[in-house]
Hints:
Distance between the termini: 9 Å
Order of helices and strands: EHEEEHEHEHEHEHHEEHEHEEH
Number of domains: 2
Strand order of the largest sheet: 9-8-10-13-12-11
Largest sheet: 6 strands, mixed
Number of strands: 13
CATH class of the largest domain: Alpha Beta
CATH superfamily of the largest domain: Dihydrodipicolinate Reductase, domain 2
Structural class: alpha/beta
Number of helices: 10
CATH architecture of the largest domain: 2-Layer Sandwich
Radius of gyration: 20 Å
Amino acid sequence: MKVAIVGATGLVGRTMMKVLEEQRFPVSELMPVASTASVGKTLLFANRPVSVIGLEEAVSRRPDLALFSAGGGVSLEWAPKFAAQQCVVVDNSSAWRRNKDVPLVVPEVNAADILPDHRIIANPNCSTIQLVMAVAPIHRRYTIRRMVISTYQSVSGSGLNGITQLKDEQNARRPDHPAYPHPIHLNVIPHGGSFEADGYTTEEVKLRFESQKIMHAPAMGITATVVRVPVYGGHSLSVNVETEKPFEVKDIRSMLAETNGIMLTDNTAGNEYPMPLYAEGYDEVFVGRLRRDESLPNALNMWVVADNLRKGAATNAVQIASYMLSMNLLPTR
């Protein structure tokens, strides 16, 4: 297939290329696409150099599949242009997630939402992906009434500027283009995205809306606090789940251990629990610290960790494409 990576020079774009290689996605021609400043640069794909091209040239080459990770503005303007050429677009920005005609997909949870006429598919927020991976099996069996979430998000979630700010501060340098309004080194910032009138941030709103949409649960109560921590990669979530039906913790533990894409790491006697340091480079979502919340009749606490650049972004996008390929939903020429 002819595959375009829009935003190929960014963190997620480069990871998308890596995942395509690892999963041996059938790429006959790879088109790395980026801004004018990057056109002509050379990237490696499958140990071969490929030249970065611009958006107009990419559309004219009529790719079969385009994986977008270049920001919402680019996606809003250019995704329809690619789709008009019968290209399937999987978009990693927030541009299309609220569009009722665009499926928002985590393949292990709601791949069936993708229909043959869909040409734009939205990739969820990184924290949303790992959250629904962990809680969707619980919701299917016990029906989740409400969730309370606190995130501990790494600086790579803010792109190269986030990583550079942390590195600069660790080396006592003043960042040229800081990603955050405060120092992140030796600090914790309860601020992700921009603040809205009700005091919540856009990242917190995404967790609520996207989880409800993916799990087809508009009435599910969800409240979140997003926090940025001085960790280079990997997002962590503390999740409190209240269900309508009673459960046994051992049953949930067994269910999650058997769930595709989940790695249960829950041996507190051996100090084994999910941590971002050990999730790096993996596509699984790690779940642990499962324990009953004794303050409510049917409530559970859990700790969820994933590599935000892989399952939280690039891997999920490639998995969407792979699912569509397996179901003959990608165009053939």
